[in-house]
Amino acid sequence: MPTISRQGTDFIYQQVTRFISGQISSGVLQPGDRLPSLRRLSDRLSISVPTVRQAYVELERQGRVESRPQSGFYVRARARNALMKPAPCRDCKPAPVRCRSLIDRVYEGIHRPGVLPFGIANPSMAKPAAKGLNRAMKRVMARAEERSIGYAPSDGEPSLRRQIAYRYLELGGAVEPEEVIITNGGQEALSLALMAVAREGDVIAVETPTYHGALELIESLGMLALEIETCPEEGLMLSSLRSAIDRHDIKVCLFASALNNPLGSATPDEHRQELVALLEAHDIPLIEDDVYGDLRFDGTRPSPARFYSEKGLVLTVGSFSKTVAPGYRVGWLLPGRYEERVRTLKRALSCSCGLLQQMTLTEYLASGEYDRHIRALRPVLEQNAERMTGLIGRHFPGETKVSRPKGGSVLWLELPRKVDGGHLFGQALDENISICPGMLYSPSRRYRNFIRLSFGHPWSDRIEAGLETLGQLVSGH
Ligand SMILES: Cc1ncc(COP(=O)(O)O)c(C=O)c1O
Known about the structure:
The chain is of the alpha/beta class. The chain has 15 helices and 17 strands.
């Protein structure tokens, strides 16, 4: 601890500011670490709490720390390399998607035994919910006996549909349990929604960059994708969407505006409201991919865009994959005015979803464990994001730019122009590290020198070493 001088020209708060800055610069305090509480530091240094607070506020002003409500002050990764601007998209035209062969290689890499999985977005693994879910499943099996191995109703287990409807009520909107259709993960919900509103050859507007699974789906349904500029900070750019609507015959929009993958951007609620009004004025349906909405770091839960809908043209996709258990394969769809068509498609395509998983999730939600788990998971993800950003700042070339996600589990990196993400992917895999090349996130393959890295894992020395290796590979290009 420093000795505080009361004689010199420096104010006491400035001495504290310098001390904490020094601890950050020397690496004793790392990005994502919590600063000592105001009271503890004031006791240790024999100074007042308001003086320590003044120092922390000054550090916040300098961008070195950030305050989090009801939690404290945390060290921030250096923001000098923040990715701020959207990739310009002036000449975007509807285009067929051709990403399948690259996705095959990426998935093959992700599932290699022992690989460092920066390539898979699996936030729940940063703080696995397995123990709580296993306990819930045991309780369910003891109660349900034979019933738990039977078929679930095609639309889903009524008790789970009611739990999901109840969560929407807590957000301030009315959803009837009968409207909720349980699906095999968010991916099936996306496919049902797309099949219900569009057909082969139709133009689907997507954010750019956008989740590769949505592009692969568009590819397999023979539809065309049209990229809409999306800002790493503010999300979807409505001005770009307006001009795209004027120029192209858009059949449907598929946006993850509550939290985009891979940018981690969150479109503000006012813009999302405007978005729904704009689309409904043109009778264009919106498929809202909301699988990450519960994972905003600041704990705010955006209202689903469907709450703003007046014509029933919004279809909302949800999932438990990102929050608790990707292997359970349980998601849902609120189909809006396309209910009939979606129900028929669901029954024809997959009959129903696993009953035991649905009953377990019902139990997990009803007992309050889901909410406790999410409250514990968010800060872990946020800390991992800061740590990873900090290490990228240390090991990657200076021109590297990094997103500052508002939630979720991935960072989006713009590497120096000469780096080819596809080539880097192969080199990294030789070192037993999986990454996602940026080209997967756009039908026009515009993100050649970008990659996506996941921080949804329990932090470890191996992750730190992996980032150093990756930085060396990038520098070698
Ligand atoms: C944006 C987005 N939507 C949907 C999905 C599909 O989720 P699920 O695993 O529930 O099928 C993912 C999974 O990565 C995703 O990132």
